[in-house]
Design a protein that fits this description.
The protein is mainly alpha-helical and 440 residues long. It contains 23 helices and no strands. It folds into 2 domains: 164 residues, no CATH class; 241 residues, no CATH class. The radius of gyration is 22 Å and the shape is globular.
Length: 440
Amino acid sequence: METVALIAVAIFLFTYALIIDERIHRAVAAMFGAAIVVFIGIVPWEALLNHVDFGTIFLLLGMMIIVNTARGSGLFEYIAIRTAKLAKGNPIRVLILFALVTAFVSALLDNVTTVLLLTPMLLYVARVMKLNPVPFLITEIFASNIGGAATLIGDPPNIMIGSAAGLTFNEFLIHLGPIMVVNMVILLGLMYVIYGRSMKVSPDEQQKMVRTLNNLDERAAIVDRSLFNKSVAVIVLVVLLFFIHDRIGEILHIVLPFVDPAMGLEPAEVALIGAAILLFWSRQSPEEIFEKIEWPALFFFGGLFVIVGALVETGVIASIASVMIENIGSTGEAMFIVTWFAAIASAIVDNIPLTAAMIPLIQDLGTTMDVYPLWWALALGACLGGNGTAIGASANVVVIGIAEREGFGISFVEFLKVGMLVLFVTVGVGFGLLWLKFVV
């Protein structure tokens, strides 16, 4: 078993090196690594589906279909022009406004859905204002992960932790919500220090931007009023279903008594249902819509899930986590180890299997200490750790994939330089606030 585990680690590191090198597309690198672990039997074929998180993949697919269908109506251009006018042509104000909107929406929806909806708008604003979109996109990624960490439904690790520990939506708001508000203020300060100088414009240039924006008529951006209205209706429906997806059976049972009150819908089901409704209602050509889907991002996720699955199959993740938390002497020590291990590991591997491996270990500690603070430590580290690298969280991969499709590349190293700073600062601040709440 030790030999097999070493081989799994070697394949993971080799794949990661290919991703960092970037001479081979990350989707191809992930698929190649996945093919190796399946070929040599580390991940048996019959266990393959257990490691691929189809909930994430189908959620992405459904939302990509909705976004690409709605894009043909001019919806995103309309919202983008309105937002840019609100910012009065000031690039810093645009960055702050989009970051705050992203964080807020990510707290109410999952962060992947949020960036799928907002990234096309942000790219359009940057194009109209003739600005480099990369600082805005990187800030959007950080804001989505911070906002998603604030609530039970904002990020998949929180959903998993809440289910395992019986934590409520309000508990997440009370314990993590204020921390993420503080972290958003810190994030905006960091982004201003890092990118502010490059985005400063003279008063004359800003006036030109304002005149350019004022010459744009957001109503004229709506090229298909019928599709616009249908897209808005379906997006509102999908957002509503995201809020009530776990109680849909109770609601339907009132009108349709034969429906099981315990029935619920997964977020992926909601996205696919919305996609099907919009395609059927709008009569858009599915061939054109499907061509615009970010297939490389989906295949990248699939391959990465399998490679991380090899680490799970061989017990590597569980062993590392077990070593990290054994011989813990106090709740404070446990919080420190869980937070930082989850944060650093989440920057390297996907936070979903990592969270799955950590949950039973924390539950085992319940026989020797109060583990309630450890759940918040795990949520903090797993969600914010994704800001560290370009592949640390689903939202990162989606935004970078869309940017590449539009001709704006964000390299792994370029993201790493800023991402690791944001990771250590936000996790450090978050851990300090948790420490004050539960230890001091």
